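Lesson 9: reading folded outputs for more than one chain in a single document. The general rule is that every protein is listed as its sequence immediately followed by its structure tokens, and records are never interleaved. Here is the first one.
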Amino acid sequence: MKKPPFVICSVVCLGSTLLMGAAADSSFDTAKIDRITGLKGVMNTAEGDYKVSKPRTDISVNVDGWTMPPFMGLASWAAFKPAMSGQVVVMGDLMLFEDEVNPVMSAALDHGLEVTALHNHFFYNDPEVFYMHIGGMGSIDTMAGGVKAALDASAKVRAAKAQPATTFGDPAMPALSAVPADALDALFGAKGTRNSGMEKFVFGRQVTMMGVTAGGDMGVNTWSAFAGTDDNALVDGDFVCKEAELQTVLKSLRGSGINIVAIHSHMIEETPRMIFLHYWGRGKATDLAKAVKAALDTQSK
């Protein structure tokens, strides 16, 4: 009896999938992951991934009046899983202190990883603890090398200063603000809102959600606020990014020396899906504006 075409297709497709899986598994060199990361991983045969972990035992963390053991979540980890063509997919979560976040983010981005979230996991923790979620796909050398570079960047900060910093270390802000508003308007090609020597710019975007269109006034916006003076200013704000834009915007801001302080979602079930990042920078007002504008220019309209 002749088999229906869909049965033949199913058998062929299943065979191809098994062959690809076997090819991927044969190149999944977990010893290399250990060697590159400097950590000893554990294979999960049920899920087919290999996970390395690094508990933070170097600094004691107090959460809500309790000295938390690393076992309770004070650790960095990365899990690797074989993919097609000898590549691996990696997902991970890096436990960081505030002064480690931006050096580690730059190291991760510079070494082939994506940064997908940055947020807290606790309240009332001393010192402050943040978690940076990472991901990516590539060769074992690149993905494991990116994890190692990120961990090394964290260790470098701690080697230079044993206890986490409590400020960015920039000069004190002027008592009164007088930013060069006309120059900032010219750089952005827009008229900002001015208040007591400060200035804010808001750039709206649109999504659809719950059957309606939501725009800038409903929070779908990038904003940038400036305070201080021309030579001693700060900028803080929020970028709204399509998922495909996030890594480019992060690289642009970090390349200009802007600090990233949070990456997360603000909505659910919106189209297109948007990710928000919050940032903080110090320096000359026009240089900060140029940095923000350069990041804006990487985004689609």
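And here is the second record, again sequence then tokens.
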Amino acid sequence: MGLNHEADLVAAAAVARANFGPVVEFVAPLDTGEISLTGQACALNCAHCGRHYLRAMGDLRRAEREAAAGVKKSFLVSGGCDAQGRVPFRGHLDELRRLRELGVRLNFHAGLVDEDDARLLGGLADVVSFDFTVDEPTIREVYHLPYSGSDYERSYQLLRRYARVVPHVCIGLKGGQLAGEETAIERLAELGADAVTFIVFRPTPGTAYADRQPPAPEEVARMIARARVLMPRTPLYLGCMRPGGEHRAATDRLALRAGIQRLVQPGRGAAEEAAALGLTVRTIRECCSL
């Protein structure tokens, strides 16, 4: 599906307006902290991340202090993966339960799971953010894992038995190339989703993909428009992980026209675009998945 003289964006916007009204939420997730359960350690060293994004995350002790002081209302619980693609949260159950008792909400990024993991998360998580990838060459090249799209679908379905799940689809995950994103959207339309968050590959210094280019804003919009038509009543979000600068500004304007419901850390011109589209802007201060 290509952008055919903007007809696809117009169709997607009409679907969004019919199901969600003329409203968009701009997200500044200042009230959500980030926890890495593994520090800077990750067994996978993924091609797009290279452990880079673990460095800025805090730990459980800091999270407890921030929760007790009322500094943060929620936390993303994440970390590096083990060699099986799982974030090892089981070794921290007591600490995580204590954190919940302080009245904060928890968004888990848990990686692949078995049924026991999914059941445990059902008792801990307000929401689970799940990286939904179905293209096997991408899984092998990016995550260095010997799994298939069916393995990711299995984990996703297990999680949905016990928790609210927001799948994340990274557009251009394979070093900026489109490789299976449209299939992932089609599968989510079949399997069902509470909401879908789109993120966009961004070249990151020190990673295997540092010299690659992100997908064009028009390609990002094409995927969002496709999802909007296939999943007319499913909220669609554009998450924080995406390129900045002019790329973000162009992507955000197109995403608004494609009918998203939440836009995290909007780029330049997003507010003006929303006004031009007749959208009422609301603001929220926690992670878009919550």
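What the second record shows: Residues 12 and 226 are 8 Å apart (CA to CA).
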